[in-house]
């Protein structure tokens, strides 16, 4: 791929053809990633080390932590961010290869339809991620986790485990739900903006 294609691709990703799309890029790329990268590490970085059960033994702690966290929240949200970026990345790669200018995307019906499809696909992926987050993490992190250690052939099948900074994790969890909802709203608003531009209610950039 030539440098011109790479430049067109990067410009398309950073400067979508709609005003709301550009705000979405700013919100998604800056605020959401900063929140996850910096604050997410501060909240969840040492969770496995401070997760303790009764009896406080390494094998019990590790077994119960793996049961408590089938996937760590940081990994899940990082995968969510990457997967949600894929539809837009494919569109802008296509536009770069076809030498489609950003201002021409809303002028031709086929380009507009392809772009709307990529935005709609982002919405679907965000909704699926929202549902998976509910299944994996719920809406609240409890201070006590009851772990089934029957597979370890312990005397007691159920043991109590202490979850560190559970209140901070609950706040962070709600924040990530909120970010997902905001992103979905922005995507819907972007489709609405495109429709208004196509119908002539708004001036095309």
Automatic annotation (TrEMBL):
Superkingdom field: Eukaryota
* Alphabetically ordered keywords of this record: Cell membrane, Disulfide bond, Membrane, Transmembrane, Transmembrane helix, Transport
> A Gene Ontology biological process annotation?
cell-cell signaling
According to its UniProt record, what is one Pfam family this protein matches? Connexin
The listed locations are: Cell membrane
**Which stretches make up the Connexin cysteine-rich domain?**
125-194
Q: What InterPro entries does its record include?
A: Connexin, Connexin_CCC, Connexin_N, Connexin_N_sf
The entry lists its GO molecular-function terms as:
gap junction channel activity
Residue stretches spanning the membrane: 25-44, 75-94, 114-134, 171-192
Q: How does the entry describe its membrane topology?
A: Multi-pass membrane protein
Any Gene Ontology CC annotation? connexin complex
Assembly with partners or alone: A connexon is composed of a hexamer of connexins.
Describe the family membership recorded for this protein in Swiss-Prot or TrEMBL: Belongs to the connexin family. Beta-type (group I) subfamily.
Protein name, as recorded: Gap junction epsilon-1 protein
Write down the species. Answer: Poecile atricapillus
